[in-house]
Design brief:
alpha/beta; five-stranded parallel sheet; 33% helix
Length: 344
């Protein structure tokens, strides 16, 4: 982000890209650390000057800074609509100043209170590039609906995982606009008018060994799509019919990340990784007879894979595999932008 003094400033949750020249960093003094304050380290570039002063995070996660002479920036940051709405409610008398003060504290802290049982992370997307996802088990339908409603105030789509049909029907009574995938056990709520998740270049292939693994595979596909990935599935391609993989090998090799969902002996991830140069993410499932040990056997099989470089997530964790794939594509997209900029 460019400041008024032409220097570059990085906030506490933003990574700095390496520069060709690396002069000694200049560290600010006299600034205290806090939840929304950070010391600044800047590097000089030809034709620019170094800024002094602290950098903080605004309520929407955007960094702000004084100018080099301590004055306020010439141009203000984009105004947070939540803050504007809050001030309007106070001005109209619809909101008590004490309540508004609590909301302001939550905005500045990067989370918002949901009744007395949750604090939603409003800075998750700003820090990691991906929004928060709700874990369904252990929460009541009322709690799930309340958390989804609060997240929907800032996100274009909200997702909850591992939702049973019974819980879905109760949440649907409270939020009629929710959509449900019974196979993946995923509940989603879209908010028109909000900025959508950035679509990432590249493709994620989701392979599953058997039909019994489809529940985990579909969870992975939906979450990957929610995180901005283009995906396709290749179901029922276990190693006892390897010709099914080989027949579709051109499509598999064309993918940029491959997620392999497999239970029983867990052999499929190793076989696929031995056929492609693409990153492979193994998802062991709890499918299989007794000695499969509810997913322990395929988990250990993936961990000791003879094909080097296979990443492994937890048993039945389609969500985790989708996040690994999305992070790989997001990092690849960033590196591509850096390479293109270097060529100019």
């Amino acid at each position: 982000m460019k400041t008024a003094c032409s220097g570059n400033v990085w906030g506490p949750y933003q990574r700095r890209e390496r520069q060709a020249s690396k002069p000694s960093p200049v560290r600010q003094r006299g600034n205290s650390y806090g939840p929304s304050r950070s010391r600044v380290t800047t590097r000089s570039r030809p034709g620019t000057s170094l800024c002094t002063g602290a950098v903080g995070l605004t309520s929407n996660g955007v960094t702000s800074s004084p100018t080099h002479n301590g004055a306020a920036p010439a141009a203000s940051q984009s105004v947070d609509p939540q803050l504007v709405s809050l001030l309007q409610e106070v001005a109209s008398g619809g909101l008590q100043p004490e309540t508004a003060a609590r909301h302001l504290r939550e905005l500045g802290a990067g989370y918002q209170q949901v009744m007395d049982f949750a604090q939603v992370d409003t800075w998750r997307a700003a820090r990691t590039g991906f929004p928060e996802v709700i874990w369904g088990p252990g929460k009541t339908p009322e709690q799930i609906a309340a958390i989804m409603s609060r997240l929907a105030e800032t996100e274009a789509a909200v997702v909850a995982t591992r939702i049973t049909p019974e819980v879905y029907h109760q949440v649907h009574a409270l939020l009629p606009d929710v959509h449900y995938s019974a196979l993946a056990r995923v509940l989603s709520l879209k908010t028109p008018g909000k900025r959508k998740q950035e679509r990432l270049p590249g493709t994620v292939a989701v392979l599953s060994a058997g039909t019994a693994d489809e529940r985990v595979a579909e969870e992975c596909r939906i979450i990957a799509d929610y995180m901005g990935c283009y995906t396709f599935k290749l179901p029922d391609v276990s190693v006892d019919g390897l010709h099914r993989v080989l027949h579709n090998l051109p499509a598999v090799r064309a993918a940029d990340v491959i997620v392999v969902v497999s239970g029983t002996d867990g052999a499929l991830p190793s076989v696929v990784a031995g056929l492609v140069e693409t990153p492979v993410v193994a998802v062991p499932t709890s499918v299989g007879y007794g000695a499969a040990l509810q997913g322990i056997t395929p988990l250990l099989s993936a961990l000791v894979s003879s094909s080097p470089g296979v990443s492994v997530v937890n048993i039945d964790n389609g969500f985790g595999a989708a996040m690994v794939a999305a992070r790989i594509l997001k990092t690849a997209s960033k590196l591509r932008r850096i390479a293109l900029a270097a060529q100019k």
